[in-house]
Amino acid sequence: MLGDHMTVDVTETISQTVHPAFQLLRQHHVEALDILVSEYKHKVTGAVHYHLATDYDENVFLVAFRTQPMDSKGTAHILEHTALCGSEKFPVRDPFFLMIRRSLNTFMNAFTAADWTAYPFATQNKKDFQNLLSVYLDAAFSANLNPLDFAQEGIRIELENGQPVYKGVVFNEMKGAMSAPSDQLYHQLAHHLFPETTYHYNSGGDPKDIPDLTYEQLVEFYKTHYHPSNAVFMTFGNQTAYELQEQFEKLALHKFTAGTTLYSKPEKRLTAPVEVTETYAVDGDELKDKTYHVLSWLLPQASDIKLRLGMRLVEGVLLENSASPLRHYLETCGYAQSTGPLMGVDDSNFEMTFYCGVQGSNPEHAESFRDGVLNVLREVAAKPIDSSLVDAILHQIELHQREINGDGTPYGLSLILNGLSGAIHHNDPIQIWDVDSAIAQVKEELQDPMWLSNLIQTHLLDNPHRVQMTLVPDATKSAKEQEAEKARLAAIGEKLTEEDKAEIIAKTKALQERQDTPDNLELLPKVGLEDVPADLHIVQGQLREIICNRMDTPLNLYHAGTNGIYYQQVLIQIPDDVVKSPYFNLLSILMGEVGAGEYDYLELQNLQTAVSGGLGMGASLRSKVDNKDKISAWLTLTTKSLTQKFDAIHLLKLAFEQLRFDEKERIIELLQQRKTRWQSRLSGAGHSYAMQIASRNMSALAQRDYQNTGLGALNWLGELVTKITQDDAAYDALIAELKHIHTKLLQAPKQFLLVCEEHQSERLVEEIQNVWDKLNVDTAAAELTQVEQENDNEHEAWLIQTNVQFCASAYQAVEVSHPDAAPLMVLAAYLRNGFLHSAIREKGGAYGGGASYDGNACSFRFFSYRDPRLAETFKDFEASVQWLLNTEQQPHQLEEAILGLVASMDKPGSPAGEAITACYALLHARTPTFRRTLRERLLHVTLEDLQRVARQYLIEQTPVKAVVAPFAKRDELQQLGFTIKQVN
Q: One GO biological process from the UniProt record (predicted)?
């Protein structure tokens, strides 16, 4: 059960729940989630509707289409963008982004997957739900698809200095996405693993193929794919299915007759394993230790729920943690630095796949990699698998099934997305939401001790549809791709007649005029400030005290509907010298990953899997609410488990208190893994790094984060790994530093946090008291190495492996308790909505851009994301302020900016997540009074406030600029006055 708030009335009669246009096919109560799932079919078109009935007031809607492109032109992805650029009832240029501003939504987006495209939203406000539903349904089923919107969002040619250039939002988005080695690995592998089906192609679009897409092809794809007969509707919340279906019928479905439903096709099977070598782009001449090796198998269809769960168990047995045999081999093989980004079962496609791989290797190890993996599989498959290990993996599956997520993505949407693949492929999503019957079937099969071993033999060892790929770095590939694009454009340019050029110029002008023409906002529905709830919902807890090491210690207890799971945390106040130490972050890498007490790391890994949802160490850091030169810093030790498993509480204490520093090979291995994975993920967070660099000296926390988590810290970690690998003295010095930090944290003041269901709380509090009563603490003082802090305000440009830029400008601002924090927050949203979105995304071609006030960095920041431009973007940042001060402003713009901020502040989380957030807020002096005061200030910001803070903080200061960019931009950045640094 999910708690008292989570009940479903399953006695509701069919006449109340079924609209006449729909037929009820079945209903199923998912006991573990206490949700009633109803499956309906639209009588005329065959559209499917799954409704997940709860009494949650955050209602979720999603409509998805089966989209199966047979090329890599990005048709499905560009259509996803273009469909949201105006429709029959809402013929405005940008209804999606306009509705984000006119809504109290808790989620709005659109997704393009390999073989489906989905349009989801969520909101707690019923009026808002109706508004969004009308816009989404019209966009999905009656999109205008203006050719100029296709040119803006997809691909177009413009003339610069008389020469043709490619522009388009998706074109630049995919240039950025495909610069990440992990994306290149996935798409190049899929090209070989799926020789004939839609998965052979890149549904997002390959930048070299996107220019081949025509507007006519886009329109034809819309006609054949975006039809109710090819659609799946999914809804979650406390609205009835009847209410929803009434709107579906009235707003969209009544216009349609039966159409074509797409079905997925099985892939043509390989008769023998394939080995291929491909390349990916890197900058620099150092190619050593940059190769990826991956093995992949195509498995049977995902519709076989028993096999699907069985292969999940196989994945757990082989890869769950560092003690699992295949992961252990890959982590300790000696010819690679880390496991690869593709690991385990992917059951989201029509047919399942299994992957394993390594990164940070070299091409000559391909054979060793293949033979090593196959040998591990043979060893595991040759004998029964330990039943206690299988039970531990089943425990993880049950924990995952029961856990109510919803802190990033709304809980209802998480459930919907879990089941969507099944519905898209004409399978049964209810089997995915309710795995209890499948678990029962699997447990029957497990009576045969060789069942899982036989699955490994059948679907991996004896499966000829296996592809091994070696992905090798190529320092010339990026330049070759750029030259190929230039050559293609030059060839186009040579063939352009004067008439052609005039037509391109005319289309460019027409697009600019369309972008500059104000939309008639009266055509769109909206909510207003009058629809904002009067108060901010904040979860209240109880403050208890327990004895820890002979001292009274606060325990923050929160009762929540957690569905039989408890969340326990230890909160430790971090000393100033520890939080500023670069070694502090390394300690968090080790806890739970090295041994503790009598257990070596392999034994501890298996224990975690058996009794908990894992052990974690992290840090919750904020600037002091009233002093930017001070940091509020708390260490968080975290675990969760099913309420009958108290061992997790013991294990958390053991792993922290008795953390072992004697496993040298393991510690070096973990630091190497962190470095390699960090390097591989840079391009997806380029805008975050750019903002961090620009605001690095604007608060103590900003400086700390730049030094310890920025791009320079990655270089420092790489150098450290090299030193400790080669020099025993350097390794000993590292361990001494980590021990000092560990001692200081054991000595530091502590609090406890427990989130659980009320009827379980007393037993759990008693257990925490018993476990933490005594703590082994060294009372001797520990001195840390002092680290020199940089304190310059130069404009910095960091070069990384990417094909696009990420730009940022930062201005010194105020602490979050200052009365100007609220107008600065509104100012950021106001400039984004009114100027920056159009200038940077629509006209400039970047995937994204905007502004933000950061109360931790105490700064106001402009940023762009996956941006083809440099100097022009910085001019747009400055122009946005002049636009605010020197042009007439419309009243609705202020209301929209405030609405978005309040909606974000009011956004619900999971029951446990809301409790944890409330506790952390108190730790950092963000009391309920403080949070409500900030919300009230936001609601009363005026246009005059915005103009005042813009002059005071932006006009009267010189910003610090930063760029994260490709290596090829070095000369241009130097000419613009940036100090050049690079990731090694």
A: proteolysis
Question: pLDDT for 722-781, tens place per residue?
Answer: 999 999 999 999 999 999 999 999 999 999 999 999 999 999 999 999 999 988 877 776
Predicted pLDDT at 14: 39
> CB under 8 Å to 930, separation ≥6 — which residues?
625, 817
Query: Nearest-CA neighbor of 605 among 670, 672, 677?
Result: 670
Across 388-493, the runs of DSSP E, i.e. the strands, are 466-474
Predicted confidence at residue 623, as pLDDT, reads 97
Quick check: is 159 in a domain? yes
- Amino acid at the residue 509: K
Is the residue at 513 inside a domain?
no
- Residue 459 sits in a domain whose CATH number is 3.30.830.10
Residues 424 and 66 sit within 8 Å (Cβ to Cβ) = yes
Please report the pLDDT score of residue 16 as a whole number: 55
Q: Is the domain of 454 the same as that of 312?
A: yes
Residue 744 covered by a domain = no
**Mean pLDDT, range 586-595, rounded to an integer:** 96
Check: CB of residue 607 under 8 Å from CB of residue 327: no
In this structure, the answer to whether residues 835 and 889 fall within a common structural domain is yes
Q: Position of tokens 């971090």?
A: 574
Give the residue from 144, 52, 47, 34 showing the smallest Cα distance to 92. 144
Same domain, 102 and 226: yes
Chain centre to alpha carbon of residue 781:
41
Range(s) of the domain holding residue 83: 22-172+205-261
Q: Is the pLDDT of residue 4 over 60?
A: no
Give me the number of domains the chain comprises.
Answer: 3
* Mean per-residue pLDDT, 931-954: 97
For residues 102 and 966, what is the distance between their CA atoms, to the nearest angstrom?
37
**Is 302 found in the same domain as 256?**
no
pLDDT of residue 688 exceeding 90: yes
List the structure tokens of 158. 């413009």
**237 with 357, same domain?**
no
Say how far apart CA 302 and CA 764 lie, in whole Å: 40
